[in-house]
From TrEMBL:
Keywords: Tellurium resistance. The keyword Iron-sulfur does not apply. PANTHER family: CAMP-BINDING PROTEIN 1-RELATED (PTHR32097), TELLURITE RESISTANCE PROTEIN (PTHR32097:SF3). Gene3D superfamilies: sav2460 like domains, von Willebrand factor, type A domain. InterPro entries: Stress/Tellurium_Resist (IPR051324), TerD (IPR003325), vWA_TerF_C (IPR019303), VWF_A (IPR002035), vWFA_dom_sf (IPR036465). This is VWA domain-containing protein. Residues 216-396 form the VWFA domain. Pfam families: TerD, vWA-TerF-like. SUPFAM superfamilies: vWA-like. It comes from Pseudomonas farsensis.
Length: 415
């Protein structure tokens, strides 16, 4: 059923009893926050647990869940008697107005039933409004009803919160809080499965005063034959998953540069929030098809490829490089020479040993003399599960802050 602004109808008339899916799709170049407010009989937010948004994606009892950007699952039977109305809203975060949006719509259906109600709208409905009440679900005479609201506010999300009786701090939040919200928004918008990792990564970044650092992020993956078990058991994919939030936090284009090596190195596609989830099995036809030559290690060739890649763009932004190996390192002299060379350039190397032995010079680089700055760190673990996610992020960030300070002081980096 197509409905228009202001139209009201009983949910039962479109086949909805207690459970419903409501999807809001707004075509816009702006960042838009989608929020559900659960209101009492006075249309006030008397219990802020029923404000459902990216930072609180579920109400008590899963009465309302934000399962993806703009997509809500609703269980009306789980709402307490004190909640009389659900108001689904959209607010522009930052500059812009709702008049800028293109063809948009909201759709409400019962689970498993493609029929329901559809309401189209566009920027022609609005002018300076930055926030709109898109749709209401409310109780009347013992039944739940729907209204296509589409009323606007000249201010953004803060105005909506105040309108519904909520409190907004007058003072702006401290920078770390701003950074947390920003990172979680980016993750929630494209990869909600990573929200938990994003929160843990952000805590580590805040502890190390890294929330405003801009850097390029790379991972170099040992793809030699001895690593087959780590790949087939999903451990390498999990390493990449845990790095993605750091790449999003540091990198303007929210991507992770990926390299792999055996006897020769290969430059893979960037890993992003849209392609990360099965990257190891799919990129360049999957890890079994990566053209790394004979399944032996040649670390210096991989290091040279990475350094040459970043030198070509001429940037002095820092480059954080995680280099994963299961050992068998024997090119000690060549690696030492490369790390001395790299020390005068914007590269920080975090070497991680995974489930192997004989890490050779990688274990000694941290104390190696003859470098302009200490540009390397190393730690090893038998299994990824040996470290909690929080502990892993702390290990990954252990020496990066000190290198940033020293590299800035010596003019090696500008970021």
């Amino acid at each position: 059923m197509n409905i228009t602004q202001g139209q009201r109808l009983a949910l039962g008339s479109i086949g909805i009893a207690d459970r419903a899916n409501l999807s809001i799709s707004i075509q816009s170049g702006h960042v838009i926050d989608m929020v559900c407010f659960g209101l009492d009989a006075q249309s006030k937010l008397s219990d802020d647990r029923y404000m459902v948004f990216f930072n609180q994606p579920s109400a008590p009892g899963d009465a309302v869940k934000l399962v993806a950007p703009g997509q809500f699952e609703i269980n009306l039977a789980a709402l307490p008697a004190s909640i009389d109305r659900l108001v689904f809203t959209a607010a522009i975060d930052g500059a812009g107005a709702m008049k800028d949006i293109a063809d948009s719509r909201f759709v409400i259906t019962a689970p498993g039933n493609p029929t329901g109600a559809n309401c189209a709208f566009s920027g022609s409905t609005f002018s300076v409004e930055k926030a709109i009440m898109v749709a209401d679900i409310y109780r009347k005479n013992g039944e739940w009803r729907l209204q296509a609201n589409l009323q606007g506010f000249s201010e953004g999300l803060d105005a909506l919160v105040r309108h519904f009786g909520g409190e907004v701090l007058d003072a702006p939040p401290a920078p770390p809080v701003q950074a947390t919200v920003s990172l979680e928004k980016k993750i929630a918008a494209a990869a909600p499965a990573l929200i938990s990792l994003a929160k843990k990564a952000q805590i580590s970044l805040e502890k190390n005063n890294l929330t405003h650092v801009k850097a390029q992020v790379a991972v170099v993956l040992d793809a030699s034959g001895s690593m087959n078990g780590q790949y087939s058991r999903g451990h390498v994919q999990e390493v990449l998953n845990r790095l993605i939030p750091l790449a999003v936090a540091f990198d303007d284009d929210a991507s992770l540069d990926v390299f792999a090596f055996g006897a020769k190195p290969v430059h893979l596609s960037p890993a992003t929030l849209s392609n990360y989830s099965n990257f190891i099995e799919t990129d360049h036809r999957g890890w079994r098809k990566w053209e790394v030559g004979a399944r032996v290690n040649d670390e210096p060739k991989a290091m040279r490829m990475v350094m040459d890649h970043y030198r070509r763009n001429g940037s002095k932004l820092p480059v954080y490089i995680l280099f994963l190996s299961d050992g068998g390192v024997h090119e000690n002299r060549a690696i030492t020479k490369l790390m001395v060379e790299a020390a005068s350039q914007p590269f920080f190397w975090q070497f991680v040993g995974l489930g192997g032995h004989n890490y050779g010079i990688l274990e000694k680089l941290d104390d190696m003399a003859g470098r302009v700055v200490d540009n390397c760190n190393f730690f090893a673990m038998d299994n990824l599960s040996d470290l909690s996610e929080e502990a892993l992020y702390d290990c990954l960030m252990e020496e990066f802050p000190a290198w940033l300070k020293e590299a800035r002081n010596k003019g090696i980096i500008t970021g």
